[in-house]
Amino acid sequence: MEHPGEIWQECDYNGRRIGGIEPALVDEDKVRRFNGAAVMLYRYNGADVEFLFQRRSRKLKANPGKWDVSAGGHVNLDEDRVDAIIRETKEEIGATLEADKLELAAIYLRWKVFVDLFFYDWTGKEDDFKFDDEEVEEVKWLKYSEIDGFMENFKWTLIEDKIFFYYLKEWNSKILQKYENI
Questions:
Q1: Which of 24, 38, 47, 163 has the most CB atoms in a 10 Å sphere around its CB?
Q2: Residue 97's closest CA among 79, 122, 117?
Q3: What is the mean pLDDT of each run of 10 residues along the chain (182 residues)?
Q4: Residue 165 in 3-state DSSP?
Q5: How do strand 33-44 and strand 49-56 relate by DSSP bridges?
């Protein structure tokens, strides 16, 4: 998706905010880094944990028609990372997240992006996702046990993101423990 007029939050090699960067410069400059945020919505269905993935629109330049995290994207200049993930989730799948219910799993470097990875409990909520066909084509719940068999459908940066899959496995265990103790 194009980002006319936007300035993204640039960061140094340690993830500290140092100013803004135009999105077009991110691709051109092999050194500059920026902040991003991603969220995985999950739900417990009484026996398994399911995670929500989105299929990227076939109209996008990067990874058209491939599956990705529930929602995610860049952090704008001087924007709070929590506000960024709430904004991105609303823009991409029409879901409204409550800031105090976001669960931070990790902050890590992937490619040129310092990613804040969040998880969000969607258990018991209605699946009333709304999205336009410019960014997201559809959404799908996958049981944790189904993810390996679905890997070839993910966008390449997600497939290569070993840290993401480490935290997905860790959170699957945490969520099962959480719901088994209720």
A1: 38
A2: 122
A3: 68 77 67 82 94 92 89 86 94 96 89 86 95 87 93 85 92 94 67
A4: helix
A5: antiparallel
